[in-house]
Design brief:
Blueprint (H helix, E strand, L loop, with lengths): L1 H39 L1
Keywords: Membrane, Transmembrane, Transmembrane helix
Length: 41
């Protein structure tokens, strides 16, 4: 029982970390694209 609970918790932590990393990457890419569009005008 305890091992399965720890496994589920670890999977949730990994998923949340992956979501946070993806969010940061998307934000950085959006900022770069926005800067390129602003500098082109």
């Amino acid at each position: 029982m305890l091992t399965s609970m720890m496994l589920i918790l670890s999977v949730l932590v990994v998923l949340s970390l992956a979501a946070a990393v993806m969010f940061v990457l998307v934000t950085i890419v959006a900022a770069i694209i926005g800067a390129i569009v602003l500098t082109r005008r």
